[in-house]
Amino acid sequence: MKLTENQPKGLFLLFFVEMWERFSYYGMRALLVLYMWKVLQFSQEQASHIYGWYTGMVYLTPLLGGYIADRYLGQRKAILIGGLLMAIGEFCMASTHLPIFFTALILIIIGNGFFKPNISTIVGTLYTPEQNALRDAGFTIFYMGINIGAFFSPLVCGTIGEKIGFNYGFICAGVGMLIGLAWYLIQQEKLLGDNCKKPAKPSYNFGMPVGMVAALLIFLVLCAMQFSGYHIKEAIPAWVYAILGVAAIGYGIHSMLKGPSTLTTVEKQRIAVIFIMTFFCIFFWAAFEQAGSSLTFFAEEETNRVISLGSWSWEMPTSYFQAVNPLLIVLLAPLFSSMWLKLKDMNKEPSAPIKFAMGLGMLAIGFVVMIAAAALAAPDADGNINKVGIFWLIFAYMFHTMGELCLSPIGLSLITKLAPAQFTSLMMGIWFLSSCAANFIGGFFAGNYKEMNHSVFFTIPTATAAVSAVLLLLLTPRINKWMNGVK
C-alpha cells in the first residue's frame, strides 16, 4: 500500500499550509537563542530561560485556541487568525528594540494557539471512523510536511540570519507564513468545501470553563510581565506558575466531565488515556527540545563545524544543525509508516503506548551518544576544548528522530481517534500541553548547561527517558483496555 494511496485531496492542501507555517516557526526558532545571545547580549542562562518560556507558551495557547474554535469560530477561521498573527510577529522580530521583540514573541505565541491545534483537527476530520489505517498514513504525510518546512527553514532563514543579518532572517520567516496563508485562502473552498467552517454543536453540555480561561489568561499576563523584566528567574517564583497551570487544567477537566448530560464510561476512559499519554510526552519533549538550547550551545562551542576537502574548507553555521532532525523525518517517515502497515497486516502492530515507550527508549540512546561526545570534548588541563566532529550530533539527532516518529504522529492520530468529536480541537490543545510543560522544564534545565559538567548534564535526560519508558510499559495493559472500551 503506497503512502499516498486513497488519501483525500484536502490533506495535501493542509500539508502545504503546515509546511510553510513550520518553515516560519522553525526558521525563527533556529535563530532565536543565537540572536538573544549575540545581538541582544543576554547571557546563555537568560537566553535559555526566555527560550523555554517562549516555546512553552507556544504549546500552552493551543488549549485556548482549540476551545475557542470548537465552541465559537470553527477551525477554518481560527487558522486564518492564527496565521496572520504569527506573520505580524515574525516581521516585528526584525526590530532590535526589546519591547517590540517581546511583543513579537507574544504575537507568535497567541497566533500559534489558534493555528496549531485546528489544522491537525481538520486533518482528522477528513477520515471516517473506519479509516484508521489510512488516517495514520495521512498523519504521517502531514508530519512530513511539517518537517520539510522545518528542514529548509534553518538553511534559508539561518543562512540569511547568520551571514547577512538576523532581522532579514526573521523577515524571511514571516514571508514564509504569508505564502502558506495565501495558498490556504486560494484553495480552501475547492479542497475542503464546508468542512470545519463552523463549530460543531455539542450533543451534551460540558460547560464553558470560565475559570480555566481566566487562569490561563492571567498566566499569559504574568509571563508577559516576566518578559518585560528580562530576568525570568527573579520576578515571580516558578511555583506560582505551576499552581496556576495545574488549577486551570484541573478546572477545565472538571468542567468537561460534569454537566446535565455526562460522558459515557468509554468516553471518560479514552479521555483518561489522552491525559496519561500527554503526561508521558512531557518527559520526551523536555529532553528532545534541548535541540534549540543546550545542543545548540554544544554545536557552537564544542563541535568542529569546519568541513575540508583538499584546499577547500567551509564552516557550517550552527543553525544548520536544526535542519538535521526534519531531514531525517522526511527520509525515515515513509519507512516507519510502511513498517506499521506491514506489522498491522501481520497482526503484530504494537499499540500506541508501546510505540511511545519505544520513542522514549530511542531518545535515551541519543543522549547516551551525547554523554560520550561531551566526555571527548571536555576541556584539557589548560582549559582548551577538544572539539568533536559533527557526526556525534548527527547520530544523536538520528536516534531522537526515530523516537519522535514513534511518538508524535502516532499521538496526533490517537487524539482524533479517541476524543469526542465535539471538542477534538480542545483535546488537541491538551495534547500540546505536554510540549508546553516540557519546554518550560527544558528551558530552565538548559540554563544549567554552562555550570554543569556536560556529560553529567546529558545523563539526566537519558535516565529520565529510560525510566519513563519502563513506567509506560508497565501501564500499557490498562491503557490498551481503556482505548478499546474494555472495563
Describe the structure in brief.
By secondary structure, the protein is an all-alpha fold. It has two domains: 9-195 and 259-306 and 316-483, MFS general substrate transporter like domains (Growth Hormone, Chain: A), CATH 1.20.1250.20; 208-258, no CATH class.
Report on the structure:
The chain is mostly helical and 487 residues long. The chain folds into two domains: 403 residues, Growth Hormone, Chain: A, CATH 1.20.1250.20; 51 residues, no CATH class. Helix content is 75%, strand content 2%. The chain is built from 16 helices and two strands. Strands 1-2 form a two-stranded antiparallel sheet. Helix 10 runs parallel beside helix 13, helix 12 crosses helix 14 and helix 13 runs antiparallel to helix 16. The chain is globular and about 65 Å long. About 2% of the residues have low confidence.
Poorly predicted spans: 203-208, 229-233
Strand order of the largest sheet: 1-2
Shape: globular
Structural class: mainly alpha
Total strands: 2
Strand and helix map with partners:
Elements: H1 9-38, H2 44-58, H3 61-73, H4 75-92, H5 98-125, H6 132-163, H7 166-192, H8 210-229, H9 238-257, H10 265-288, H11 294-301, E1 306-309, E2 312-315, H12 324-345, H13 352-376, H14 390-418, H15 424-446, H16 454-483
Antiparallel strand pairs: 1-2
Helix pairs in contact: 1-2, 1-4, 1-6, 1-7, 2-5, 2-15, 3-4, 3-5, 3-15, 4-5, 4-7, 5-14, 5-15, 6-7, 6-12, 6-14, 8-9, 10-13, 10-14, 10-15, 10-16, 12-14, 13-14, 13-16, 14-15
